[in-house]
């Protein structure tokens, strides 16, 4: 077994998003005096398994459809390089999906005293949908990531569900106010997806993968990216202004990095110049959340 290739397959540079989702939801819970450490640990574990499931399924779908063999720019995937078989990758997807489900059930059991039965069932359905969405992004008869709906899926599951959903586990009920920071993380998650799709724009177009970036074309894709990154700042600033504490403004330390990312994207003349930005957007998302959280507990 090629351990190094499996590590590449996990796409570790996207995993800070998983941490960011749960840390943000937990910071909101802390602000309202309802934080619970077991919920935090299990929510983080469940989201990590979901992220890995999504990453593996993405590679499986791209390999099956031929996208990974269409001159893509990024690091070589396991199937593409021949070091991982499709069967082995499929087994890994099933394993991670089962682990995500098991961890999610444990999470709901711990959170059950705070949820009524209706809330328990609702969050169970949301969790099952999250696993399905992670897999069907590029796998199945109608992979929604190939038809321009990937951004919507990322916004919903890596923003609204991840942040507002984790807060609901602490509170026992949803909060309208949590939708603002949830939307902020959703927009930043779209930013990470954009870095991937702008980098792969030519390979995706050649393979028939009609991402939103492919449909827009490079010029409009750059403008779209700038808008979603700035919308993240607007949403988070609005929350702090309306509901937050002065120290939560610490998140603004991430704004220069956001502006720098937008500048690099706008000036890029080749998709290959974007590849390094994927990790940076993932990390600046985590930075913004950690700064916001530090401001919450101070």
Description of the molecule:
It is built from 13 helices and no strands. The chain has helices at residues 3-10, 16-31, 37-65, 78-81, 86-111, 117-136, 150-171, 179-199, 201-207, 212-216, 218-243, 255-267, 275-297. α2 (16-31) runs parallel beside α7, α2 (16-31) packs antiparallel against α8 and α2 (16-31) runs parallel beside α13. The radius of gyration is 19 Å and the shape is globular.
Helix content: over 70%
Low-confidence region ranges = none
Q: What is the mean pLDDT?
A: 91
Question: Distance between termini?
Answer: 47 Å
Query: How many H/I helical runs?
Result: 13
**What shape does the CA trace take?**
globular
* Main sheet overview: none
String of helices and strands: HHHHHHHHHHHHH
Radius of gyration: 19 Å
The overall number of domains is 1
Structural class, from secondary structure content?
mainly alpha
Strand content: under 5%
The strand count comes to 0
What characteristics describe this protein?
single chain; mainly alpha; 298 residues; globular; 0% strand; 13 helices
Indicate the topology.
Layout: H1 3-10, H2 16-31, H3 37-65, H4 78-81, H5 86-111, H6 117-136, H7 150-171, H8 179-199, H9 201-207, H10 212-216, H11 218-243, H12 255-267, H13 275-297
Brief account:
The protein is an all-alpha fold and 298 residues long. Helix content is 74%, strand content 0%.
């Amino acid at each position: 077994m090629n351990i190094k290739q499996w590590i590449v397959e996990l796409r570790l540079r996207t995993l800070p998003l998983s941490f960011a989702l749960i840390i943000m939801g937990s910071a909101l819970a802390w602000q309202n005096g309802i934080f619970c450490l077991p919920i935090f640990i299990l929510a983080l574990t469940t989201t990590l398994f979901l992220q890995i499931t999504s990453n593996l399924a993405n590679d499986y779908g791209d390999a099956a459809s031929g996208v990974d063999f269409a001159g893509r720019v990024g690091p070589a995937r396991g199937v593409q390089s021949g070091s991982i078989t499709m069967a082995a990758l499929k087994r890994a997807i099933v394993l991670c999906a089962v682990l995500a489900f098991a961890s999610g059930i444990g999470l709901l059991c711990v959170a059950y005293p705070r949820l009524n039965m209706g809330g328990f069932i609702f969050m169970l359905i949301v969790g099952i949908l999250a696993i399905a969405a992670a897999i069907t992004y590029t796998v199945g008869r109608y992979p929604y990531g190939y038809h321009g709906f990937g951004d919507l899926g990322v916004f919903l599951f890596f923003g609204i569900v991840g942040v507002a959903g984790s807060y609901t586990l602490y509170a026992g009920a949803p909060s309208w106010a949590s939708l603002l920071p949830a939307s902020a993380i959703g927009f930043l998650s779209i930013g990470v997806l954009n870095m991937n799709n702008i980098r792969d724009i030519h390979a995706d177009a050649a393979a028939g993968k009609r991402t939103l970036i492919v449909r827009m074309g490079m010029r409009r894709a750059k403008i779209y990216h700038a808008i979603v990154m700035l919308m993240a700042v607007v949403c988070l600033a609005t929350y702090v202004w309306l509901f937050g504490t002065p120290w939560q403004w610490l998140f603004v330390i991430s704004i220069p990095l956001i502006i720098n990312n937008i500048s690099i994207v706008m000036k890029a003349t080749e998709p290959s110049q974007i590849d390094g930005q994927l990790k940076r957007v993932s990390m600046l998302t985590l930075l913004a959340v950690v700064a916001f959280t530090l401001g919450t507990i101070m």
